[in-house]
Every structure is written in structure tokens, then in C-alpha cells.
Amino acid sequence: LIPSDYRRAQELGIELEKVVDTHNGELSVSAATDRGNGAVYHNGEKMVISFFSNRDAYIKVYHIDVNGKMKLIFPNKYYSDNFVRKETLVQIPGRNYPFAFVLGKPYGTEFIKVIASTTQFKDIEKSFKDLGKEIGRAHV
Fold first, then answer.
1. Can you give the three-state secondary structure of the chain, one letter per residue?
2. Is the link from the previous residue into 106 a cis peptide, with omega within 30 of 0?
3. What pTM does this model have?
4. Distance between first and last Cα of the chain
5. pLDDT tens digits for 25-72?
6. What are phi and psi of 75, to 5 degrees?
């Protein structure tokens, strides 16, 4: 039997190998949704964002909505440490997160932006300030 997400796991493995195989030693980061880059989601569907770095890094992940409003989604109050060890796949939301990204209105193209550095950022914006009011759901 082949699991339903086997093909996606293979694709992700190939993508991660590209990041790890950076020969010049430069910092390289990869990010994608659980459906891959350019995915289409419908009202009420859940989304998971994964990211990965070839080196130990400090990482910030932003969601940019259809109106161009940018919000820091990592680090967040459930994963407050933005230091990520090399070759560690991080998912938002993770298994222990008490929320889900449930897609809804307004509809349109949205983006995920990942910024990584080998040194800590001078400031980390307040993230998810309204999270918790949604009874375990963060609408994106």
C-alpha cells in the first residue's frame, strides 16, 4: 500500500536535497504549503506551511494576504524561538499547535515569505496578537 501523500513526500524530499546540497556553503531556505507552491485552496480547507534550512538559522515567516497586509506567523506564541537547526523541517501549524490555518474570504492570491539569517534579527514583531480569540482557529 502506498500512502495518499507518498508522491508529495517524494517531491518534498527532492526539494530538500536541493537545499542541503548547496556546495558553496551559503544559507539556503525552502518553503512550501502542504499542497506545494502555487496551490489552490477552497473555502474552509486547512493549510500547513513547511520550511527548511541547510544551515542553522534564525527564521521569520510572513503571510501576505490578498490585500497586501503582511503578518508575522513564525515565530509565534506557540513556537517563540525562531532559531531552527539545520536540516530540520518545521511546520506551521505544528502537531502541538492548538489552531489551524482555515482558508476563507476574501479570496485571491496570498503569499508566504521566509527570511533567514545566521545571526539573530534585531527585533521580532509581535505575532498572532489576535490568535486565541478564534477558539483554536486562525483564519488566513
1. CCCCCHHHHHHHHHHHHHHHCCCCCCCCEEEEECCCCCCCCCCCCEECEEEEECCCEEEEEEEECCCCCEEEEECECCECCCEECCCCCEEECCCCCCCCEECCCCCCCCEEEEEEECCCCCCCCCCCCCCCCCCCCEEC
2. yes
3. 0.71
4. 34
5. 789 998 989 888 788 889 999 999 999 899 999 999 998 888 888 899
6. -70, 165
